[in-house]
Amino acid sequence: MKTPEQINEIIEYGTKAPSGHNTQPWKFLVKENEIQIHPDFDRELPIVDPDNHALYISLGCAAENMLLAAKHFGYECTVNVVTNDKNISFIKLLLNQTGSVERDNLFDYINIRQSTRNLYTNDKVSSSNIAALQESFNFKGIEILMFTTAEEIEKLETFIIEGSNRQFQNKDFVKELVSWIRFSKKEVAQKRDGIWQASMGMPGVGRTLGNIIMKKFVSASSEAKRWKKQIEASAGFALFTVEKNDVAHWVLLGRAFQRFGLTATQLNISHAHVNMPCEEIQVRNKMAKQFELTGHPLLLIRFGYSKKMPYSYRRPLADVLETP
Ligand SMILES: Cc1cc2nc3c(=O)[nH]c(=O)nc-3n(C[C@H](O)[C@H](O)[C@H](O)COP(=O)(O)O)c2cc1C
Description:
Layout: H1 4-15, E1 26-31, E2 34-39, H2 53-72, E3 75-83, E4 89-97, H3 127-134, E5 142-147, H4 150-168, H5 171-180, E6 181-182, H6 185-191, E7 195-196, H7 207-216, H8 220-233, E8 236-242, H9 247-266, E9 270-273, H10 276-279, H11 281-290, E10 296-304, H12 317-320, E11 321-322
Parallel strand pairs: 1-11, 6-7
Antiparallel strand pairs: 1-2, 2-4, 3-4, 5-8, 8-10, 9-10
The structure holds flavin mononucleotide (FMN).
């Protein structure tokens, strides 16, 4: 029998998923045999994610964690995207206790996965590990293109830098980003969301000084310089594409990316987002043309080796549970 404690635990594993700017844009609703994951549009990112694709990718990441947790507790679990009468899409997880559910070892890595934003060590990832990352999921409509040689990465760099330049020349982008940075331990412990400065390798300076630093010292050119170093130290890049640019594929992409992140964690491989060329639509289109992609490139991930960073925070269950 399902217990409320198990259901809460499954949801808690969902909240450990990554989300754009760590907005945690989800609400969970428990019904008889199902858990629903609803978008929390109060937490959307209108500048960097105007169509909410990243928001639904984040919900997909949460769904995959919850599926792994459900299996761990012995439930068969199916994941569906449905639309309500207000035309809002959400995810339904149906849980069924059958007695013979195969556990997935990726569950063991949910608690230690993180987006690791530091400088990687330049070490290469073996071809068997690259293959393991590529095979970490098998969802129709979601593909990964790997960039691992110097020539391949050089081609990608142009798009990364163009995307970064466009974003850091856009005051609204910087304003939105700064509103989600938590500039001290006190601030992050209070809000339990957003990007904690320590997880970016920044000192805890507080919001007033943090705002000044972001305005006066962080620019398109300083970011481009920083990215060139990060790119050089990475072992490779994974570009995720979706066959169709719709909610169902965004959710599926989230599930695929979560499996990729957990597999990387299992292999001691660090990973982090380099999404700028996917987020800036003109750059996304140019990149799709250059690499002759048939799908839409929506996530770009660097990977390599590095030490762990401090973990980001999550809001408590009480803040994300909806009452029916
Ligand atoms: C759809 C999506 C987009 C993201 N975009 C970026 C990004 O552009 N830059 C970045 O540094 N991190 C990005 N992240 C990572 C989040 O900031 C990270 O998941 C969040 O801060 C929580 O940290 P954690 O992954 O270590 O738990 C993204 C994550 C998701 C799911």
